[in-house]
Specification:
There is one protein chain. The protein has 320 residues and is an alpha/beta fold. The protein has one domain: Zn peptidases (Aminopeptidase). The chain is built from 8 helices and 9 strands. The longest helix has 21 residues. Pfam families: Peptidase_M28.
């Protein structure tokens, strides 16, 4: 998550359709696909390995993460949205890439609308001033969110149950000021991209001790939270006062999509300022991540995202 300037006790956070046959859409109770904790662990462990040297945007080591994410698309038959998966940032002084793919919707009309699913894969790299371990591996921030998106890709690539098209984006240079998402949102806006909504995954590596699984940033800006809970059939996402206090809605890659398109664009997160103390520290390591929690949360999000892509109308809307 991009550093924001608020002090905590210990940490600074910084055309009409014809009568074509449409694939039958599964209801949440009918989803038999299971998110593999083993796969979650394998992806997360690679993204947080020392050989990636903390995934600093523009570095040689982050190229290994780029290649890995490109391969996730290739192995699952997901096409690049642009000429290639690599979308070069226009607003960064080094060469850095978003990694972008698309799964076309199966409805002849709704496929022209897009749901964007994203997460940033960069982190803050090496801290030469640190004592001992100098590599900020960024397990929770945000290898966890990146891993979640890879699992969502696998599900929709295999099942193809989405009526709307889904644009998947792994953002770079989030830690430099949301540069990857700012670049992509502006680029898509200039191309008259038909976006319905955007969902971002950020810091989901550890569970909260609350009566909901995750919170959503910008809770009061739209009805996304209530629709997600309706889709899930449970109290899946809730309101966290800290996200409002520390203005987290503006601190991750959902925000440029909100400002460019004025549509619901929000982040889901399970870091609540009480359950993890290693924000932007070398101790943010793979071994501290709860991969069972991560797999379970993604599993619960699959029917939510499926219903979001399949609703006949734009049920998720900004509040006036």
């Amino acid at each position: 998550m991009k550093k924001i300037l608020y002090l905590l006790p210990v940490v600074i956070f910084g055309c009409k359709s014809n009568n074509a046959v449409v694939t039958e859409i599964k209801q949440p109770s009918e989803i038999t696909y299971k998110v593999s904790q083993q796969d979650v662990s394998k992806t997360l462990e690679f993204l947080t390995s020392d050989e990636l040297e903390g995934r600093d945007p523009g570095s040689k080591s982050i190229e290994k993460a780029v290649a890995f994410l490109e391969n996730v698309y290739k192995q699952n038959g997901v096409k690049p949205y642009f000429v290639s998966y690599k979308d070069t940032l226009s607003n960064f002084d080094k060469t850095a890439y978003n990694v972008v793919g698309v799964i076309e919707g199966n409805d002849p009309k709704l496929k022209n609308e897009f749901v964007v699913i994203g997460a940033h894969y960069d982190h803050i790299g090496i801290d030469e001033k640190a004592l001992g371990d100098k590599i900020n591996n960024g397990a929770n921030d945000n290898a966890s969110g990146t891993t979640a998106v890879t699992e969502v890709i696998k599900y929709f690539a295999k099942n193809k149950t989405n009526r709307r098209s889904i644009l998947f984006a792994f953002f770079s240079a989030e830690e430099k000021g949301l540069l990857g998402s700012k670049h992509l949102a502006k680029k898509l806006k200039e191309k008259n991209f038909n976006i319905y909504t955007m969902l971002n995954f950020e810091m989901i590596g550890v569970p909260m001790k609350r009566d909901f699984t995750a919170y959503i940033t910008g809770y009061g800006k739209s009805n996304m939270a209530s629709k997600f809970n309706e889709y899930a059939g449970k109290n899946l996402v809730g309101f966290l006062q800290a996200e409002l206090t520390y203005r987290l809605f503006m601190a991750s890659d959902n925000y440029p999509f909100f400002t460019e398109f004025n549509v619901p664009a929000q982040t889901v997160c399970t870091f609540d300022f009480e359950n993890y103390e290693y924000y932007h520290k070398p101790q943010d390591e793979f071994k501290l991540m709860d991969t069972a929690h991560m797999a379970s949360f993604v599993q619960e999000m699959l029917p939510v995202i499926e219903k979001m892509t399949n609703s006949g109308t734009k049920e998720i809307a900004l509040k006036k």
